[in-house]
Amino acid sequence: xxxxxxxxxxxxxxxxxxxxxxxxxxxxxxxxxxxxxxxxxxxxxxxxxxxxxxxxxxxxxxxxxxxxxxxxxxxxxxxxxxxxxxxxxxxxxxxxxxxxxxxxxxxxxxxxxxxxxxxxxxxxxxxxxxxxxxxxxxxxxxxxxxxxxxxxxxxxxxxxxxxxxxxxxxxxxxxxxxxxxxxxxxxxxxxxxxxxxxxxxxxxxxxxxxxxxxxxxxxxxxxxxxxxxxxxxxxxxxxxxxxxxxxxxxxxxxxxxxxxxxxxxxxxxxxxxxxxxxxxxxxxxxxxxxxxxxxxxxxxxxxxxxxxxxxxxxx
Length: 315
Description:
This protein has 315 residues and is α+β, with helices and mostly antiparallel strands. A 4-stranded antiparallel beta sheet has the order 2-3-1-4. Helices cover 62% and strands 10% of the residues. It has 2 domains: 34-224, no CATH class; 229-302, Alpha-Beta Plaits. Helix 2 crosses helix 6 (111-130) and helix 7 packs parallel to helix 10 (204-224). A hairpin with a 6-residue loop joins strand 2 (256-261) and strand 3.
């Protein structure tokens, strides 16, 4: 007769899922769907318009440096105008600065993802050169806060549609997928370095306001885009196998079944333990509820995760 450890081990083996086969290492061809890609195209074009309008109004009027490739482009433009009296268009500088990040995207993230991101980069650059400056307000603090909110919203729209605004976003996604960490705060640190250079060249007041802009943008991004954040689920259920199968079919994540005993009725119950992304957690909880309406579910934010965790490949 096996002991409890052996039973738990057997249950773990049965329920722990293996990530789907990706084709034996072969590169899948890029496929387009009129319905899905049409929606994707419309949303990222809207995001590009929002981003360009934000640069033409809040960023330029406030004299801010947004960070990343956009901030570095603005910094180069202003340095050329101040020291060499040359007016350089936004688009060519931005495209040049995005060359290496775009290569990283093609090589390590996904071709379709990178193609859409290139569309965002080019469209944002062209519109930024075409849209005239318009002052919504001259209050630099208001510009920093609301400009950051708009920037974070536009970036989130792109990321939700599996695209990006370019620059350090490519690097952030690369670090997240390869290292499994929420890397947006690392990128915030890199941007602080860029802004420090702007402070040395053009004065610290605008650089400090730009840090507020970038911080606000990053926090909005954390709220709206949760793919690389994790949730730990503890599910008390009488149907553990069905619950595990439901989690696997929906998210591709495995689970572990543990034996538990209630402190009140002393009844034996099963506990399903699983870790999913924050973006998937609501759908997973809803599916578990449909599978077992009597299930008790505890969702906890996961601060740090070590070990193999399945991330759906970016197309």
